[in-house]
Target: histidine kinase
Amino acid sequence: TQNIGLLILVDILLITGAWLFYRNVKRELHLAKVKSDFVSNVSHEIRTPLALISMYAETLQLGRLKEESKRQKYYNIIYRETQRLSGIVNNILNFSRIESGRQKLSFGNVNINDIVEDVNNNYNYHFNEKGFTVDTDINHELRSINADKQALTECVINLVDNAVKYSADTKKIHLRTGVRASYQFIEVSDEGIGISPKELKHIFDKFYRVTKGALAHHAKGSGLGLSIVNHLVQGHQGKIEVESTEGKGSTFRILLPINNSAKP
Ligand code: ADP
Model:
């Protein structure tokens, strides 16, 4: 009986070992795929604006365009694509700082209405060109809170960028600010493709991208945006809420504590 006991123990150890080995290999393979998808997504995201910038700059440089209005159009495209590139690079830098624990927020007095208005103004050209209408519902009573303006601006840019990317026929975006209990909030809503309840659980995971649906396939992205937004909002002792219905649209809400104790 002692020998049988020993044999069973050896069997259990072997099976556990094989199972652990299988699990690790599976995890490594998954990580390798996530990494290679990320590199290919990001390379694609960087290559497209670079190609456009280089093409339009070359045309301008050769002096082929006689009409001023056409030249203006090309300058606008170059500006827009540069902004897009800088958004991508900011996201990657933010992500690497977050991963290595080097992300530092610099707090100061911020009126969140200014952030929403700045993003709306800076993106105006982009919205018009893509056929989007943006309506804003700003609460003008809001007082300044202790926050990092640049970080929050990046959060709103990421949410607005997603609202544009994941909209189909109805190209409407709503930006809203307000107060709820001890929080001020910034809300970005779209009437786009929406997110299924199953996928909703994962959208804040780093590298996560919903792959289903033709539209989601065509939209470019790195899967980093929302994980960065989540992290930056948590750095403000805030929280982020999402309400979404497939085929109807999504609302992302950043809630920021009115009295947060973070030091400037
Ligand atoms: P990505 O670079 O893929 O846009 P994000 O982290 O910003 O990465 O978003 C993760 C995923 O969440 C996206 O791939 C998309 O499937 C989904 N998603 C984000 N925002 C929206 C939205 N407004 N409407 C529908 N789906 C969205």
User: Anything to note?
Assistant: The mean pLDDT is 89. Residues 158, 162-163, 166, 190, 192-195, 203, 208-210, 216, 221-227, 250 surround adenosine-5'-diphosphate (CB under 6 Å).
